[in-house]
């Protein structure tokens, strides 16, 4: 079984998760020799590097046109026809967005990264064509055996509540912030050299509640005391209304889409970060702001509260007065109070890391490999075991060393071990069949492996119960 990463999202937009998509591509390409899909083709390593350097290549333009044509075409005619000739159906595809599941006939042996369900739950925030396409994508996911990875517990709950997908089928992998050039400390100049400006980062779209933020800033009157509101992000659904409102309000600046260097400077020089979004699957700009020691004002619901925890000053996003009050309150912070918010932001950001995120996606891939044991394992050689699986020395002596197995193993690894035990039992029976064994000797071999199976399955059940307890799920 081979691993593919569907990188089509990098051709469509440059949202906050663009760099995370590249991290996933790099990790699985280097560790598992994964191939990269962009729309309807498997890309060479040279093509991928060109795309990394220039997001306006012929390959990207072709993918953009292809995706647009697909989404606007008659569904029955285009259904499952994009990648039917690539021969990837019996392999594992990592989808970075549920929408692109529509390109393939079967997604049973795939991993789907789910950000949010707002095209289904709040269709007025999106174009009708986008909502219809995601509706079809989630219907396909419901009917499949795909492994789902939600970027927050909030999104996992939405999958359960709105689609009836069991929490047992959903892993949660929180996103993470990119590494900075230098870590901040309380003695850093960045803690004191701040300008009188509030910063918002995100697409110009209705669900981000930018119009509510602009009205709250106007209501606060802080522009009269030298404060400004800087809004960074490209156009999204509803951007025209936002632009018209900005033109009427003093002290508000639309910076548009800016490069990483300029964004880093804004993060490090702003007075506070404001994130009044109506709903988020995660809220990566909030995490990036916290990682840069920026005091944060954020919505008190969805995944935003999950990410901000006790580090942010929370508001009611639907209440312009609540947002305005928080802006005024933050403008009056004394140095020590503001420093306290900065330190809390930095501390909270440490809870999120690439290592935690990627390990959960990797576990999902390994579990699929175990599920497809007939293809993934060679009974004679076991040559295709995951590299990370083979790093544990006790594997060489398995099953004799089963008692030395680390307690911390994930469910996916235990499933792999269970498959390995069954394969080795079968091989041993083949070997013993060549000898004259009486019933007692054969029964002894069967009991040995049955006890191993029982122990592994018990450990798997224990892990599931522990996971459900932590997430508050009742079996």
Automatic annotation (TrEMBL):
<dbReference type="GO" id="GO:0009103">
    <property type="term" value="P:lipopolysaccharide biosynthetic process"/>
</dbReference>
<feature type="domain" description="Glycosyl transferase family 1">
    <location>
        <begin position="193"/>
        <end position="338"/>
    </location>
</feature>
<dbReference type="InterPro" id="IPR001296">
    <property type="entry name" value="Glyco_trans_1"/>
</dbReference>
<protein>
    <submittedName>
        <fullName>Putative group 1 glycosyltransferase</fullName>
    </submittedName>
</protein>
<dbReference type="Pfam" id="PF00534">
    <property type="entry name" value="Glycos_transf_1"/>
</dbReference>
<keyword id="KW-0808">Transferase</keyword>
<dbReference type="GO" id="GO:0016757">
    <property type="term" value="F:glycosyltransferase activity"/>
</dbReference>
């Amino acid at each position: 079984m081979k691993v593919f990463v569907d990188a089509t999202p990098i051709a469509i937009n440059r949202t906050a998760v663009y760099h995370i998509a590249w991290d996933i591509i790099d990790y699985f390409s280097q560790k598992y020799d994964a191939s990269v899909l962009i729309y309807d083709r498997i890309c060479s390593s040279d093509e991928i590097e060109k795309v990394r350097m220039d997001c306006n290549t012929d390959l990207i333009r072709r993918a953009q046109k292809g995706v647009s044509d697909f989404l606007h075409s008659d569904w029955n005619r285009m259904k499952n026809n994009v990648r039917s000739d690539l021969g990837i159906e019996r392999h594992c595809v990592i989808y970075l967005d549920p929408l692109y599941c529509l390109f393939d006939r079967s997604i049973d042996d795939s991993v789907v990264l789910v950000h949010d369900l707002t095209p289904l739950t709040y269709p007025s925030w999106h174009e009708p064509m986008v909502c219809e396409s995601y509706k079809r994508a989630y219907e396909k996911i419901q009917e499949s055996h795909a492994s789902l990875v939600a970027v927050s517990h909030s999104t996992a709950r939405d999958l359960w509540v709105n689609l009836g997908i069991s929490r047992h089928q959903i892993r949660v992998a929180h996103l993470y912030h990119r590494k900075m050039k230098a870590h901040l400390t309380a003695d850093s100049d960045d803690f004191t050299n701040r300008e009188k400006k509030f910063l918002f980062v995100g697409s110009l779209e209705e669900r981000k509640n930018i119009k509510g933020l602009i009205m709250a800033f106007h209501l606060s009157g802080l522009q009269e005391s030298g404060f400004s509101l800087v809004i960074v992000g490209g156009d999204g659904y509803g951007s025209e209304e936002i632009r018209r409102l900005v033109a009427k309000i003093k002290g508000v600046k639309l910076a548009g889409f800016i490069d990483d260097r300029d964004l880093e400077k804004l993060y490090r020089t702003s007075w506070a970060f404001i994130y009044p979004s109506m709903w988020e699957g995660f809220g990566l700009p909030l995490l990036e702001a916290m990682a840069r020691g920026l005091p944060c004002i954020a919505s008190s619901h969805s995944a935003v509260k999950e990410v901000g925890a006790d580090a942010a000053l929370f508001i009611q996003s639907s209440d312009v007065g609540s947002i305005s009050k928080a802006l005024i309150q933050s403008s009056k912070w004394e140095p020590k109070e503001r420093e306290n918010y900065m330190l809390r932001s930095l501390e909270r950001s440490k809870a999120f890391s690439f290592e935690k995120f990627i390990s959960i996606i990797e576990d999902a891939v390994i579990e699929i490999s175990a599920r497809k044991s007939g293809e993934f394992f060679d009974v004679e050689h076991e040559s295709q075991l995951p590299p990370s699986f083979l790093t544990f020395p006790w594997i060489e002596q398995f099953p004799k060393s089963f008692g030395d197995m680390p307690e911390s193993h994930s469910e996916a690894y235990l499933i792999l071990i269970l498959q390995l035990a069954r394969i080795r039992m079968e091989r041993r029976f083949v070997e013993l069949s060549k000898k004259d064994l009486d019933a007692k000797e054969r029964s002894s071999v069967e009991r040995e492996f049955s006890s191993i199976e029982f122990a592994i399955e018990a450990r798997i059940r224990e892990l599931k119960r522990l996971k459900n307890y932590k997430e508050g799920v009742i079996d």
